[in-house]
Amino acid sequence: MRLATGVPPLEPVRKRASVPEELSARVPAEQRGPGLDRDAVRLLVSRGTEVSHHCFGELPRLLRSGDLLVVNTSPTLAAAVDGRIGHARVVVHFSTRGDDGRWAVELRDPDGRGTTRASAGGPAGTEVRLPGGGRLVLEEAVSGRLWWARVCEADVLGLLREHGRPIRYSYTERDQPLSVYQTVFALPSPDGAGSAEMPSAARPFTARLVAELVSRGVQFAPVTLHTGVASAEAHEPPYPERFSVPEASARLINAVRAGDGRVIAVGTTAVRAVESAAGADGAVRACAGWTDLVVTPERGVRVVDGLLTGLHEPEASHLLMLEAVAGRAAVDRGYEEALRRNYLWHEFGDVHLLLPREGPHTEHCVRNCW
Hints:
Largest sheet: 9 strands, mixed
Shape: globular
Number of strands: 16
Strand order of the largest sheet: 2-1-16-15-13-3-11-12-14
């Protein structure tokens, strides 16, 4: 299957309050103070419209033995590369490699502050000179800002390894090494493929926290979905992406669903992967290829009981997926609380755990967690 040249229209995302600029997480949690690790972020928990506030390190006590976390193992690529169109500087964001060898790319303009501005790119036939003597030629518009491009005289994955850097947006403070954008679950792909942008919901996990979860009876099911670009300036529906759900993970998910455990996806990418492998009966089967699934409240979810995710912009299409998992009232209430309590947004920010409604519980937070 090749990447589609368009995406289906979505129902408008419900208007929510805008996010103040000061709530953007500008650096990773571990760089905000001495002795901090990745898990030094806040955790908002929604059970229906009931909300509680925690530190991420409390996650093992918020889950229960028999629960299953579905995690995305896609590694993050150094997907931003400098180039030139004539004498003008551009930055190429390599998004997705198609079956025909072309890449879906986004061209962006340097903003003079180390980051970039959105650009329409084009027209077809535009040639971009790349480091090392390679050339990129725009051939066909995918949708909006993305173009199919042919890369000549260069191996793209080698180009990214030698000259690329992680995609960075203007709300961040400075460039970071690629290791900052790798999650603890990331595994090298046999073909070198990966994600243009980090599957960031898993970023707060540390090896220590994973070990504690396992010791408490929480299981993990790895899946893979290589994400494309999703810049903060545009809130399109997700494009088709490569995914894989291995046989062992499919069996484990089905076993948990047949018992008393809950299937909790870590990130919207994990939801998209596992729901793409689910039949109408809710059974998950081993599957690999492309998915163009867009999870909306109308479509609903067949497998996932809960979701651990970052905080999304008010008009982001990802919020429709959150509503499919937890309902609109729960999402609205959670986001009201996140704004009221000054939670931090974006890939280095705080996280939101949406769980099925349970009985009364007590709000609790360990001291000095932020």
